[in-house]
Amino acid sequence: MAFLIDGDTDVSTKECVIVYGRILQRGRPVNMLIGHIEVEHAHAQRIYAASKKAFAALGDQCSNWLEKVIALGADGAAVNLGRKGGVIALLQQEAGDHIVPFHCMPHRLELAMLSVQRDNPMMAQLYDLLHLIWKTYHFSPKSMRELRVIGADLGVNVLMPSGVKGTRWLPHVSRALETFLKPGQFTAVYYHMDHLAGSSANADIAGRATKASAFFHNIMPFIRATYTIVKKSIEDATFVAFCHFITDVFSSISKFSLLLQRNDIILPQAVCSLEKLLLTTEAMVARPKPDGRLSEFLADMRLQRRQQQEEGDTAIYKFQTITLKGEASKLAGDDVAATKLTKVMDATIKSTASAITCESDTTKAVKCFNIFNHDSWPENQQDLVDHGADDLGFLLDHFSTVLRRNGVNTELAKEEFVSLKLLIARMFKDKTYLSLWELMLTREPYCSEHKNILHLVHIMLVLPVSAAVCERGFSTQKRIKSDTRASLHSDTVEDLIRISVEGPSLEDFDARESVASWFSQGQRTRRPNYRTWPSEVHVAAMQDGP
Known about the structure:
InterPro entries: HATC_C_dom (IPR008906), RNaseH-like_sf (IPR012337)
Protein name: Zinc finger protein 862
Pfam families: Dimer_Tnp_hAT (PF05699)
Largest sheet: 5 strands, mixed
Shape: globular
Organism: Merluccius polli (Benguela hake)
Strand order of the largest sheet: 3-2-1-4-5
Domain HAT C-terminal dimerisation: 445-497
Number of strands: 7
């Protein structure tokens, strides 16, 4: 098994640790809530102690959990995955060095894109622009009302801009880009920013300031300059084209991020999807994504050029009625490769690929599990027999403690690996990763004939690729322990989280047994017919009475 941890501060300012276990059930990985524990301090020692306490609360069935653990999954915080003083270091000291630290891949993906934002000036400009637009309308109902009025004049239904900073997962950025480029939304934002840039000094904008007049006069030049920058960015043809390009890129990245957040994601599936993502995004530089945002934008620019040439008009290029400046004429030509846009796109994709594939603290053992990715096996049978022999030897040595404890014969495991490869290549090459290993682990005679090598497959399937389940657990905690229920005991919160995430759905839940239990077993007297305040009918009756 593997276990996943994460920490958070609840509404009552108490530090909490949530612990999940990842096990196999009928050949498929399943995440199960182990516990939700309050800690006095979010130090590695306290977090590790809280994790042990959560397992101990489950009783004898988990008394030997340290002997079964093969990996720890968490976000990249040093308190969790620090090699010297983190939770993983304490766990390895007690349970063995074979335990694999695994940095949550959705978190890694998010951090990778943040590093791209810092390293790429136009990417940083785009993030800042979207963040400024979001702040303008999120914190000012009047600005949002004005934007809706402009949208109504244009005949479009404008949406509230989405934020891009401070969000947990990358699909938020994709939604912000889609909203920004929505037909009519782009134009409405441009006209409103033009209005704000031109009227920042008048009484209308001054009335929105709540500070002293001296501060207001000092800040007004900055406000005008900010709105002017937004307006100029929206007018820049290269920047607008880059927005379309990044929308296509983030569309692919968001799908990958959503895949990684699934509870049943396994390592081969994640690795294959990552390789596909890198190939897809690299191809976008040479050729825009078919039917993507950038290809539609460039096609519209070329259409405008042909129409103007046929009519003999002056070359003026627009996007949603906004006249574009800069390299608009070059983008409308047939050779886009010579433009500044291509250089920016190439730099963005290179930095993205570098950030996503950068080396992490993930051990060599994780990389060696690629030998079980049947899509990457060689076609030649002789090459297939020898494929992965060295990596298999490393895995058998690295997990020797766990394998020996479970009675695995390493020599037989090597022989079974050869026969397993030949069997899969001959009969099950078309199977998906999950269905293939579910079949091998649960069906006879496969699970008996390859029982030694399948122990390594078992380890691979429970590797904690994603810790998104911990984030979902804390989301449930925030719904339960709200401002009006801030005094709930941690045990009660854990029980309610368990009911929410592991209990039946609302449609399937029969409340009669729970109501009967509440009514008959409560420590206090139950008064279901008690009314704290008289209803309007009773008030009227009292007023009409003698």
